[in-house]
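Lab notebook page, bench 4
Experiment: in silico fold of construct C2
Operator: M.H.
Input chain length: 435 residues
Purpose: comparison with the prior construct
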Amino acid sequence: MAQANGRDVFEGGAMAFTEARIEQARRLVCDGELSADGAGRRSWRDEGCRGLVLVVNQRSGSAVLYFQGTVNGRTIRRAIGDAENVRLEEARRAVGRLRYDRSAAGALAPRPDEPAEAESPTLGSMVADMLDAHEAGRWLPGTRSRVPLPRTMKFYRDLRKARLAEHESLSLVEFAGKLPAVYAAMRAEAPIQANRVLQLVRNLYGYAADRGLWTAANPAVGTSKTDRLTRTAERARTRILTDAEWRRLEKAMALDVPIWRDLFSISLHTLQRMGACRHMRWSDLTLTGKRAEWRIPAEWMKGRRHGHVVPLAELPAALAILRARRKAVPKDCPWVFPGADGKPIDNHDKAWDRLIRAAGLWHEDAEQRPRPHDLRRTGGARMTAAGVPLQTVTRALGDAASSAAMVARTYAQVSDEALRDAFAASAGRGRPRKR
């Protein structure tokens, strides 16, 4: 056998477990010093206890102990618990108990002298633990490798409050039974939001499984075609503002609070998302000379892989707005669009709702109603209509080069006037030229 204290002991698929080796295995895998499989995991069997398995997840940093073996002719796999919370001796005793018998109902029966298993945790306690672990980077779902941004965690917590709060007193087992009906009701009311909730619940049960607190199939995925919870197909929104709609909106903004007028105008001129515009800092701006520009940090770009630069020198209207704001905003304030609390301005949806009502652009059908993001889409569409190549439009938007197809679908729309011109040109080809 390899040296007890050397790294060679971890090279095979089995080793004699000790508390120190389990922790060392976790560290070596998480640091990338030991290779993992395609799912980012590495496992070992315990030479000192048949059926005990250690699985280290490189992405989440967890080290979970499992029982894996045959009981009454059936192969089963069951999580015992996170190695941080379950001592090795306890895990080995649990393996002996799990191998003892299997009840007719399919649950692993404990020995008569062993206490019953703890009750399933509640949905509320588990989702709180999962969000805290995710925010701290202790647990990352699926193939994700980056700690989420504060705005992502705010979205998750808002979603939890809006859609899961009324069910949080249920145990994980109880909620799993009710999930199909809960999801169907949400899907009928708000299909896109239901997709987000479904993903959140999938992550929740995945986290519970990694903690050893859930051993059945993930109920948000299903095990067959009949019980699988399917997401609603999402189509890219293509709504853009016509010139007439934009003029009506400009008139409404002229009568509104200047900060909202300026914020929405900057979004249109620079083609950037509201999140980036709201969090614009003076330190990210150069407002003078031919090199006037806005340097957007990577954290406010959708892919978060790189920052983006907007050449303000080529956008005189945007530059004029920002120079006027520099005079209006206190010198010690870091934000271009500060709120009353000194933080970046918030609740832009309420301001937008007020503006489109004042502009006569409100529509009962939410899909027909203009949204703040439509300003970015409108600017991109104007670029394509002016004949700017799609690759250039893609770069101007700050999207990855691989997003060119999406940009083509969303921004390269053909106006009715352009369509008439195309038919007129086609009809003119067959006409004899006048001499």
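Observations: The chain is about 45% helix and 10% strand. The chain has three domains: 7-98, 123-210, 243-419.
Next step: discuss at group meeting.
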